[in-house]
Amino acid sequence: MLSMSSGPPLWLQAVYRLERAIGGPIESAVRSDTYFDVVAQANRARAKAVGAVEGVSRRGLHLLNLPAGTDIRRVREQLSRMERRMNALTDELAALHDTRDGVR
To answer: What gap in Å lies between CA 99 and CA 21, rounded to an integer?
Structure first.
């Protein structure tokens, strides 16, 4: 008959040992100033690369007389401003109408 041990299975013990062996050095590396410097540089490099790709694609789309993402974003912002202004004018007209009806 097999005896049942009260501890975790062997595979789980192996996973715990591996995690402790690898986890500690990784955690200390992730908390270091060097890590944060590398992450900041990587983010700047990514932003620069994305900007370069967007610039090339924008010029290519404009050569084909097509709108680029920045054009669409600008139009959406203008549309949002117009919607806010229309809502404000509608509210002003409703208030004026209510005031005029109250005078009668």
So the answer is: 77
Q: Give the Cα separation of 71 and 62 in Å (integer).
A: 10
pLDDT tens digit sequence for 46-80? 999 999 999 999 999 999 999 999 899 999 999 99
The structure tokens listed for 84 are 């806010």
Distance of alpha carbon 70 from alpha carbon 54, whole angstroms: 9
Q: Give residue for tokens 């806010």.
A: 84
DSSP 32-47: SHHHHHHHHHHHHHHH
**Domain assignments of the chain as residue spans, ordered by start:** 11-66, 67-104
Q: Give every CB contact of residue 84 below 8 A, 6+ residues apart in sequence.
A: none
pLDDT tens per residue across span 1-45: 455 567 889 999 999 999 999 998 999 889 999 999 999 999 999
| pTM score | 0.50
**For the range 41-46, what are the long-range contacts, defined as Cβ-Cβ under 8 Å and sequence gap of 24 or more?**
none
